């Protein structure tokens, strides 16, 4: 709980090493190594306990680059950030360091402020990444999340090539009904109960996860004795969880034959098996077997006829309109493929696209769709219709095609269209597979002028992780996400957050799958830009779309017709405040295409601009500005709360004193003049990323740590909050509150009323505590509250009583008999939190037994 972070300093020059250690010693535990070899053995000893490595490049025995390569290649250490110390501010050193995987660099001679600052920044970034890993666990049930489960299975299969395993998936047949009839909290309770059952059953024999709302999965060592009796027994236990007798569950089993089969596919097969007995009374499980193979036979038939279908023009494109939400004007369309087969009839893409993705035919079909899309655009241009854009789907297989850019350029040239008329939809999940390659390929396409949309965004959290690194223009929110999120008022925070984040990163947002007026209204309210969905129109043959376009085009004023680029947001903006015109000019040139640059030449102008534009990506501030000087701008920015998120990079000639003062006044970074414009660009990107990360952390904390109902911490939030308390907070008063008659309320007035009471109780606790105190709901009607620096036991008891009394008074005034009881215990140095919680629990038990509605203090003699 109360420990300092550890830093490893690797440097052969003992003078330099001592200097670094002195700089760091006040804030960190420092480990020292004289060369790479020594450093490696320290790494072995402390592993990920090391928060950061400061590394010299030129060393005997094993040089820095070799060491860096070893560290980055080893999964056990590769996530530890490394800052490289270089001889001078030369760009080649910087580039070499970064390309070897360093997180940052500092130049010699060492400047304490800079070093401390960079170290803190990098550690902070890494912790954000660690936070995101929390998403490894499913928020509701605490089981592994889908992606993480897959990853773990892969590891297990790799490590145990000779063992035999089964994948079991389960599906609750009438889960939606349970949610509808009993309410979502009850549904959630059921899921948590099932998760626990899974954990008990699988313990020691395998691992389990939740892969979809009501779908659980586990990997266990092979067994042969699956029987109906076994699953009947499990279903009976599931039904006991809610005291109702109508929950129906089905299991599918896939016995893994080939360890190299993708895990997703193995789970799909198990799920396919589960679905195959849907609605069949008395059947509880099915193995993936022959009958299921029939589906595969159909797949085979599709495979056999696909080539000739393309030749015989059986594939067609349909277009689905996209509208601007603000004025509901038509701005574009998505091209979606349809297969009209002479015998099978109209085939939906869901039938064949997944198959084509597997067998590779998708690349050919996609090229056909791109070609058709461009052909209709050319046709419309010739007819003088508004020059809108059309988006096409780009499969992940396309991205791995080295000729992708050439192919796309050839098509747009063939129809004499600028690439910006074509939007490329690339699914979110593609980005998580091989991020580097994807970023490079997509970045190249974007540089060529294609507009990049991230499709199905929100179907996994994975890419939030690296969103700010990705070369994209538009976020396309996944339809399931829209439909779920707009249905659940509690989680709309996430939708709002994503739209804010997008706004902030200068991305446009398209919501797809909009089906109702309510969804549209909600999306408009939170600031979404574009919509697509059945509410407006289904995908239609291109002639029908053309009629729509002609109608809309005719009714629009000319300046609105400039379709294609209307989708795009502007580039992020950077302010350059510098007295040197040549400097400004050089920066503007270097930043072209990356940032919009606004230049000013004195402090007044700088301040005026910053105040009007608090959402700048960064401000580059010369400390030697006139009227009066750069420091005054820094001071002003620090005072203004609205500007705290604005990264400021101070520039000046090399001068330790200026630098110290600038950092002290809140500058985020300092760069000495003269410098390469590229160095400044890198610094800005880093500063900008740090702010994006901060916002993200806040979001993830909210999502993972809060109780969805009351807004106070949940169990995990409580644990995290406990970690952040320190010695100065002692003594702590630890309370356990319990609502005395919530069950009765639920039964009498319904669960909605019960939820309202819980929410209200959360508010009461907040009103009686201070912001830094900790409040959490750890079970149905149990709350833990921790008040810091409690002067005495008597006061602790009195405070608890005050809360109990308030609850009783207010509720009896409202005519509802609600009371709460509490137990409190004091935590001193040397106590563990679980000890103290235990004591509070005992005191609560006494309060409940002796006098409901009261608060008892735990005392040694009371046991
Ligand atoms: P997608 O790219 O996410 O496309 C959106 C899908 O949602 C389309 O289904 C569209 O018809 C459907 N949709 C649009 N609005 C609504 C709505 O309001 N409610 C509902 N429930 N659905 C709506 P479609 O056309 O069946 O396509 C399914 C998927 O097949 C597409 O999902 C895409 O992944 C793939 N696909 C379709 N055409 C192509 C293609 O030419 N190339 C590639 N690679 N994939 C394609
Ligand atoms: Ca799409
Ligand atoms: Ca989509």
Question: What does it look like?
Answer:
This protein is α/β, with parallel strands linked by helices. The protein folds into five domains: 130 residues, 3-Layer(aba) Sandwich (Rossmann fold); 143 residues, Alpha-Beta Plaits (2-Layer Sandwich), CATH 3.30.70.270; 247 residues, EAL domain (TIM Barrel), CATH 3.20.20.450; 125 residues, 3-Layer(aba) Sandwich (Rossmann fold), CATH 3.40.50.2300; 148 residues, Alpha-Beta Plaits, CATH 3.30.70. 48% of the residues lie in helices and 20% in strands. It contains 31 helices and 30 strands. The chain has an eight-stranded mixed β-barrel, surrounded by five helices. Strand 24, helix 25 and strand 25 form a beta-alpha-beta unit. Helix 2 runs parallel beside helix 3 and helix 13 packs parallel to helix 15. 37% of the residues are buried. About 1% of the residues have low confidence. Bound molecules: ligand C2E and calcium ion (CA) (2 copies). Ligand C2E binds next to strand 12, helix 12, helix 13 and strand 16.
